[in-house]
Amino acid sequence: MYLRNTWYVAARSDEIGEALTPMTILGEKIVLYRRADCMPVALEDACPHRKLPLSMGRREGDLVVCGYHGLTFDCTGACVASPTQPRIPSTARVRSYPVADRYGLLWIWMGEAEAADPATILTIPNFDNPTWGSTRGGSMTCRCNYLYLVDNLLDPSHVAWVHVSSFAAKGTEDTPLQVTVKDDGVTVWRWMRGRDLPPYYAPLVKFKGACDRLQHYEVRYPSIAINMSIYTRAGEGGDPDNLPADAYVMVSYHFITPIDENTTQYLWMQHRNTDPNDAAITERITAGARTAFEEDRVILEAVHAGMANKATPHLDLALDAGALRFRRGLQALIDAERPRQAAE
Ligand code: FES
Ligand SMILES: [Fe+2]
Questions:
Q1: Closest ligand to the CA of 300
Q2: What is the pTM of this model?
Q3: What are the tens digits of pLDDT across the range 83-121?
Q4: Best residue for ligand 1 mutational test, from 64, 66, 82 (most atoms within 8 Å of Cβ)
Q5: CATH number for the 133-334 domain, one of 3.90.380.10, 3.40.50.1220, 1.20.20.10, 3.30.420.40?
Q6: Which of 19, 263, 288, 307 registers the highest number of CB atoms within 10 A of its CB?
Q7: Atom 3 in ligand 1: which residue has the minimum CA distance?
């Protein structure tokens, strides 16, 4: 089950142009394209006649013409031409989805269209900050349920075993986790004090010697993760909103969009509070993230298969507390939508 009245990332904005582009989100077939004025359009990708994907048809200006018998739809999903007969059937329409470009991403609202408000799209504070550096990031398709990605991004513990050559360092295996629950999601976090820098961060951080290190793993409902790493000199770690001048901050944004119950689109970008114009550092961060997230993907796909085919019961560990709170919170939101969905 999915939360529907929320914004998901469908694609990067520059991946959708004038071509009819099919994709599946929450199990629904959708065709995306841009109008001549560049505004994005998302329509149900199934002609109401014989359900041929409209993405197999063609554009005629801003209209979409079905590739089987020519029913023609406008950007709202209304049928505006039926060439094989004089009368357009009253049921000839396809669903249209609210979409919006923000932060170089194309967001899609999968619930009730009248409830879609672009003002509720996640805020990314330093996206345009000229003193911060950024990576475009990357994307991949994972053959696992989206909630395994969410679990993973509420689980700092896994770093010690999955990311041995990058993010792991002394303290990641046994420092206790804190859980903060809010209305919009869950954060699992911990400060590790007086530790060595991990290999991935050592060349990026602007001071030498021991550090205090914050792992802040936050996921907002239903599936956007904000992963913040902060490094200060040992003894200086504290309030993330009041850091020393040479603190290093890296924020990774993870946009997790269910394709269906078994497949997930995973897209990320990263922002750092240093070196805004250093292409070599940007490249290093980009490559490191890709390597690490591939390590996650291998694990999570195997976890999905293992949990789907388990012959004996599984168990939970203390490290799962945040993820389990998140799953309960998300399920409550999904359940609250159900009466509205049933009435539709
Ligand atoms: S399937 Fe689209 S018009 Fe026939
Ligand atoms: Fe990971």
A1: 2
A2: 0.95
A3: 999 999 999 999 999 999 999 999 999 999 999 999 999
A4: 66
A5: 3.90.380.10
A6: 288
A7: 69
Q: Which residue has the higher pLDDT, 228 or 174?
A: 228
Give domain 15-101's CATH architecture.
3-layer Sandwich (2.102)
Report the alpha-carbon distance of residue 255 to residue 105 in Å, rounded. Answer: 10
How far does residue 342's CA lie from ligand 1's centre (Å)?
A: 29
Instruction: State the distance from the centre of ligand 2 to the C-alpha of 217, rounded, in angstroms.
Output: 11
pLDDT, position 282: 97
Ligand that lies nearest to the alpha carbon of residue 296, given by its number in the listed order: 2
For the chain, domain boundaries: 15-101, 133-334
Is 83 close to ligand 1, i.e. is its CB under 6 Å away? no
Ligand in closest contact with the CA of 81: 1
Residue 341 has pLDDT above 70, yes or no: no
State the pLDDT at residue 112: 97
